[in-house]
């Protein structure tokens, strides 16, 4: 167990006072309106929500489950963390569409995309589901903090679960999203510095990069250094079929909304950005930092493997990164490290407290219960919802034993049956509210049947998770595609209004034709004198062109090369440096191609936003 020095306690107390001070400082901004309490008034420059994206997705459970997969699989375990790469495409596709919709939440967006009774049922269902899911996430992140406190101090797990989440609730209740995003900015910086220090210190404690590589070769474990070390196409514990499935889910998922569990919190950051361009870069940059962080962790976890090889108890090796920090940092630095752990914990807790309150307040109370509620009343309902979420999360947290099991279930299985519908609702005009609602209902039942019930009775063999994904997606499609065609199309007036405002990508031909006939959208005509267009009119920028597709291709390539390249470079495997250079070059080319277009879109759209909000 740890013994704090006076300096360690100073670090901790100063940090907690700083976070609580955020609530007091931004209290007056948060209480002004519903938009301020949940979106910071839609006026943030890209770097603030970008920091919040990174901070939110650096939670107490994150190093636990990343340590678990990298300790077990070596550098190829990094691909388990690549699910966040949906942001590579989303930054330039669905984020753009969602920001233009001006929806507070994904549930509200359903009312903008769909119409009639189906849309209302869908909004109510999704709002209720998201209140539950955010409470669930708060529980698993909270119990992860409980496990860390038990490991470090020997405290009962419920203390770590309750105490630090309650401290976080102080500034979230006071300032809402203003408190969340401003605290995230500080927490993100503190967390990243701590991750760098502990990871590099751990590599040094193992003897340095050269020693790590040498020892892995001597142990006969050199395969751990290969991020593409597949065990066969379908065989072994890391088949190529799993890798391909993961790439499809992560990368292609960027065309949709809600294809990853992270989307719902990122959607709040997208809407809080002051322009479409700021929204795109906030998502892209924040996720690039997340993947870079994962590379530092991966190198440090290989150092931990060299120090403590052959551990078979997951609950023991999952805490490996924390163990390196507590065991090897000098006196006086332990408090800083623990303050950073608290920082990464509070950043995620604060996000999901405020996000869950969005759905409870905006979508349930404001939309269904009291549409004419005053701004003051809505802010207070938001605060009460935050408190209910906090208390509910304590009960969920105490029910969770193994972090990775719950996280993989939430990330993979529960999303499998609605992954494709989450894309279809964005790219296909004919997909309607009834098809989407049935997809959700079917997935909840099918996922339990395929994963647990049928295998338990011997009707279906236990299947690897990637096969479960494809089976669930196929079974779901057999239900929601017929339902879509057997139920009426969405009202064309509603679709035209949505199309003109959001300008979605994909198969929207009949809606586009109707919008042109009504004089709401000009016929597509792009004046092109060079292969890559660098000067755009507002009407030209609204069209989906080759520049968008080049950004869509370059963006995930950049993410992959940066993540893998940085991890290898930290271990002095010099092909990693080449990969890192390629990744940065792809990012630079992507920016050069797409930025002029994003500027034109933002300048044109911001002139219309005030009208849309009225």
Task: Using brief descriptors, characterize the structure shown.
single chain; 614 residues; 0% strand; mainly alpha; 27 helices
Give the helix/strand layout.
Layout: H1 6-25, H2 27-30, H3 34-39, H4 47-56, H5 61-73, H6 86-90, H7 94-101, H8 106-113, H9 116-153, H10 157-175, H11 177-205, H12 209-218, H13 240-252, H14 263-272, H15 276-307, H16 314-317, H17 320-328, H18 334-369, H19 375-399, H20 403-427, H21 433-456, H22 465-486, H23 492-502, H24 509-517, H25 538-541, H26 546-570, H27 575-613
Mean pLDDT: 89
Radius of gyration: 24 Å
Structural category is: mainly alpha
In helices, the fraction of residues equals over 70%
Biggest β-sheet strands, sense, barrel: none
Proportion of beta-strand residues: under 5%
Give the total of beta strands. Answer: 0
The helix/strand series, from N terminus to C terminus, equals HHHHHHHHHHHHHHHHHHHHHHHHHHH
Count the helices. How many? 27
What's the overall geometry?
globular
Gap between N and C termini, in Å? 58 Å
**pLDDT below 50 for ≥5 consecutive residues: which ranges?**
none
């Amino acid at each position: 167990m740890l013994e704090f020095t006076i300096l360690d306690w100073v670090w901790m107390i100063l940090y907690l006072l700083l976070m609580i001070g955020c609530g007091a400082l931004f209290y007056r901004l948060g209480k002004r309106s519903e938009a301020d309490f949940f979106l910071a008034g839609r006026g943030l420059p890209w770097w603030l929500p970008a920091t919040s994206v990174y901070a939110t997705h650096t939670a107490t459970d994150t190093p636990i489950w990343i340590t678990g997969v990298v300790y077990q699989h070596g550098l190829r375990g990094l691909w388990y963390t690549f699910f966040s790469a949906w942001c590579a495409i989303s930054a330039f596709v669905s984020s753009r569409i969602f920001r233009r919709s001006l929806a507070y939440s994904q549930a509200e967006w359903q009312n903008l995309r769909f119409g009639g009774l189906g849309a209302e049922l869908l909004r109510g269902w999704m709002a209720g589901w998201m209140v539950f899911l955010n409470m669930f996430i708060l529980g698993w992140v909270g119990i992860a903090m409980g496990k860390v406190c038990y490991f470090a101090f020997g405290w009962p797990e419920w203390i770590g679960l309750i105490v630090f989440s309650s401290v976080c609730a102080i500034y979230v209740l006071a300032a809402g999203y203003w408190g969340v995003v401003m605290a995230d900015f500080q927490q993100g910086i503190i967390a990243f510095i701590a991750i760098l220090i502990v990871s590099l210190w751990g590599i040094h404690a193992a003897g340095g990069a050269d020693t790590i590589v040498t020892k892995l070769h001597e142990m006969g474990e050199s395969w751990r250094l290969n991020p593409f070390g597949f065990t066969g196409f379908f065989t072994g514990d890391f088949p190529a079929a799993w890798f391909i499935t993961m790439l499809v889910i992560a990368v292609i998922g960027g065309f949709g909304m809600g294809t990853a569990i992270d989307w719902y919190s990122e959607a709040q950051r997208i809407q809080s950005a002051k322009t479409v361009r700021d929204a795109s870069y906030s998502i892209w940059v924040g996720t690039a930092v997340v993947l870079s962080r994962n590379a530092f962790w991966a190198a440090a976890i290989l150092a931990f493997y060299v120090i403590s090889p052959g551990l078979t108890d997951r609950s023991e090796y999952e805490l490996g990164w924390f163990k390196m920090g507590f065991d090897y940092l000098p006196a006086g630095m332990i408090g800083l490290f623990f303050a950073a752990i608290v920082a990464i914990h509070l950043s995620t807790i604060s996000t999901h407290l405020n996000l869950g309150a969005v759905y409870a307040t905006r979508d349930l109370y404001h939309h269904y219960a009291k549409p004419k509620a005053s701004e003051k009343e809505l802010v207070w309902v938001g605060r009460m919802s935050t408190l209910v979420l906090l208390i509910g999360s304590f009960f969920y947290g105490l029910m969770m034993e193994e972090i990775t099991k719950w996280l993989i279930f939430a990330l993979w299985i529960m999303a499998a049956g609605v992954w494709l519908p989450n894309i279809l609702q964005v790219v296909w005009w004919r997909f309607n509210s009834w098809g989407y609602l049935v997809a959700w209902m079917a997935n909840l039942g099918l996922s339990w049947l395929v994963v647990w019930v049928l295998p338990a009775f011997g009707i279906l063999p236990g299947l690897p998770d990637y096969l479960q994904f494809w089976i669930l997606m196929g079974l779901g499609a057999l239900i929601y595609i017929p339902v879509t065609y057997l139920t009426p199309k969405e009202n064309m007036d509603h679709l035209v209004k949505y199309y003109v405002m959001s300008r979605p990508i994909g198969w929207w031909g009949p809606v586009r034709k109707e919008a042109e006939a009504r004089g709401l959208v000009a016929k597509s005509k792009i004046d092109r004198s060079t292969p890559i267009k660098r000067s755009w009119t507002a009407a030209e920028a609204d069209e989906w062109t080759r520049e968008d597709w080049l950004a869509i291709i370059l963006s995930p390539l950049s993410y992959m090369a940066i993540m893998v390249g940085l991890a290898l470079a930290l271990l002095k495997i010099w092909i990693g440096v080449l990969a890192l250079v390629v990744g940065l070059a792809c990012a630079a080319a992507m920016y050069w191609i797409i930025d002029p277009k994003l500027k034109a879109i933002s300048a044109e759209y911001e002139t219309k936003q005030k009208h849309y909000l009225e």
